[in-house]
Design a protein that fits this description.
This protein is an alpha/beta fold. It is built from eleven helices and 15 strands. Strands 2-1-3-4-5-11 form a six-stranded parallel β-sheet, with helices on both faces. Strands 9-8-6-7-15 form a five-stranded parallel β-sheet, with helices on both faces. Strands 10-12 form a two-stranded antiparallel ribbon. The longest helix has 17 residues. The N terminus is likely disordered.
Length: 370
């Protein structure tokens, strides 16, 4: 874990800022309103990715519109990879006067945690992270959307569309968030097509369009005729389009890039959490330490289905499964078996996520890593 080092000048600026906020330095005091609260966002990419960061910023804009937050109250940091740049961004945000700092990538977590300890009057909000509960700090929060639900529904479209019964999935990293997501996608496909198999290839980056395109092509060469993705660009979609196969996007309606290939996309609606967090904070309430919102809260959604590509019956099958999910059915319910045949979940046994961050880290039968 990297330590944060702040200059004397910055510390003085922070002290002056908090003194101005109230005699006790409380940023949630009576002088804080929706008209003067300051929000900083540290992004791992930028909106040109047409994927994850594009969707994150769309959530910010929707929150601003809903709460009447002006552009002058928001500071964005783009293309901040985990490392020293996160520390620098936090320093600049605090010097600017941020009351709330949001970070959007898993690797930002340790730096947010350290800053929360250093500056108890600033609140830190980390999407996708898993450190806040153990840290037990009143100003450090984790949040995520239950993307497994939307992934499962998008997998139904893939399972009904495939003609080879082979799916391909371009995966960012071999970590629990990604593995949880593509497992849910596969289980959705299997729920309507028990014969389907899936190949997975890892990008080892969140966003590398060149390598993403190479992996997408390799999966097609293995016989996959529907591709899914956990990658932050539309490249998987454009490769599917060029090869005359189908694809499921992520975080955006990518039918513009691939009108003859794109089926649909699971997406986050980040504004659902942001509206809750900002409003609660400004009103002096306690923002929960760890928040997981799903379909019922509107935090995860599907794009419109592409009427020119989806298989007959797709909309009806998705609607039926969505009703089950909204009623409380758990996707990760046994029996589930590992790729080596080991029983992972006995019949009827559920996998319950302990935190908002996904933690399923098993490769199940029917999925092959390449």
């Amino acid at each position: 874990m990297h330590k944060l080092f702040f200059s004397t000048g910055l510390l003085l600026a922070v002290m002056l800022f908090f003194t101005a906020c109230g005699q006790n330095g409380d940023t949630t005091g009576p002088d804080l309103t929706l008209e003067n609260v300051r929000l900083a966002f540290i992004h791992v990419g930028d909106t040109n990715d047409r994927g994850y960061t594009y969707r994150q910023h769309a959530g910010t804009v929707a929150m601003m519109n809903a709460l009447g937050i002006s552009e002058g109250q928001v500071l964005n940091f783009w293309n901040i990879a985990p490392g020293a740049a996160v520390t620098t961004s936090i320093e600049e945000a605090i010097e600017w006067g941020a009351n709330m700092i949001f970070a959007t990538s898993f690797g930002h977590g340790p730096f947010m945690h350290e800053a929360a300890q250093q500056f108890p009057d600033v609140h830190f909000f980390h999407a996708t992270g898993n450190l806040a509960v153990e840290a037990n700090l009143p100003n450090f929060h984790n949040y995520f959307g239950n993307m497994s639900q939307a992934r499962f529904l998008s997998g139904i479209a893939a399972g009904l569309r495939t003609e080879t019964n082979r799916l391909g999935f371009v995966a960012a990293w071999p970590n629990p968030e990604v593995i949880t997501g593509y497992t849910a996608f596969f289980l959705g496909a299997r729920s309507v097509n028990p014969e389907v198999q899936m190949y997975v290839m890892y990008l080892n980056a969140w966003n590398n369009p060149t390598v993403e395109g190479q992996l997408a092509q390799a999966l097609i060469d293995l016989g996959a005729d529907v591709l899914g993705q956990h990658a932050d660009s539309p490249t998987t979609q454009t490769v599917a389009q060029a090869n005359g196969v189908w694809s499921v996007g992520y975080n955006n309606d990518m039918s513009i890039e691939a009108p003859d290939a794109f089926l649909l996309a699971p997406m986050f609606a980040w504004e659902v959490y942001l509206i809750y967090a900002v409003r609660t904070f400004v009103e002096g309430g306690n923002v929960r330490t760890d928040v997981l919102y799903g379909l019922n809260e509107g935090m995860v959604v599907l794009s419109d289905l592409n009427p020119s590509t989806i298989a007959p019956g797709t909309a009806e099958a998705i609607a039926a499964a969505e009703a089950r999910l909204r009623a409380g059915w758990n996707i990760f319910t046994g029996p589930l078996y590992g790729a080596d045949g080991t029983q992972l979940l006995a019949p009827g046994v559920e996998w319950i996520e302990p935190l908002s961050a996904p933690s399923w880290n098993f490769i199940i039968e029917g999925i092959t890593e390449r």
